[in-house]
Amino acid sequence: MTKPTIAILGAGAMGSAIGRYLTQSGARVLTTLEGRSAASASRAREAGMEDASIDRLVACDFLLSIVPPGVAVESAERLVDVLSQSAKKPVYIDCNAISPDTVAVIANVLASTGAPFVDGAIIGAPTSPKFYMSGPHAAQTAQLNYAGLVVRVLDGPLGAASALKMSYAGITKGLTALGSAMSLAAMRNGAGKALFDELSESQPELLKWLSGNVPRMPPKAYRWVAEMEEIAAFIGADFVEHRIYEGAAGLYDRLSKDKDATGVLEKFFKKED
To answer: What is the pLDDT of residues 212-269, one digit of tens each?
Structure first.
């Protein structure tokens, strides 16, 4: 089977990792490095991705948007004119951690361009990502399985993939937030050692999970703020539990800046090593 040409919008850690999977399978992968940091540009080149103009990106077979959730809509808006003018339309796959309502906004933004739109969700670390796809055009993405990706097409409407992502991340990143918040509170009140010892005795698997995830969180905390806000919106303002994720957004915002707190957390959970 002929490998598709794939554009990736966003050459961050995840985007570059996906690009590497694709290029190693023999696919041609384009991105734009305009305005990107030197680190992002270096990662993209090491992954075998080609720097290209926006006009060339929209002439690919597939375009994967892998950007911070807070700029997912803006990223789509920037492509409307060039997509509308392009004779060839890529399948636009929004792979960002956004709510189904935000997916609907992006689908509406792109509707006039004629580009097929797919709701995508990435679950897993950059080392082992899985793609879930939903919507009327999702079946077209199955060929990406032959280009180095693991793609699962959901039998559900546009927004189903993002609903899965919101639910999954709400559990995993929500648990990371909960473990961080309560560990910090325990240490502020002189109960840190007692909490660690009790978790070791009665919840060893939970402690192992937290010890593997909390120390890796601080460099990513700034990106998780908007994701928690999207999860709160996904739950809905009519349900009081949406406040859990508004609180998690605030916590991650604080931890993205408070190096003393993240240092304390890292030291606390390293006891498990």
So the answer is: 999 999 999 999 999 999 999 999 999 999 999 999 999 999 999 999 999 999 999 9
How wide is the angle at C-alpha 202 spanned by C-alphas 197 and 205, nearest 5°?
95
How far lies 62's CA from each of 57, 114, 217, 224, in Å? 9, 14, 31, 26
Could you give the dihedral angle defined by the CA atoms of residues 163, 169, 175 and 179, in that order, rounded to the nearest 10 degrees? -140
Amino acid sitting at position 75: S
CA atoms within 13 A on the CB side of 133: 23
Provide the whole-model pTM.
0.93
**pLDDT tens-place string over residues 42-74:** 888 888 999 999 999 999 999 999 999 999 999
Q: Which two tokens stand for residue 143?
A: 């060929």
Which domains does the chain possess? 5-156 (3.40.50.720), 163-272 (1.10.1040)
Q: What residue type is assigned to position 219 of the chain? A: P
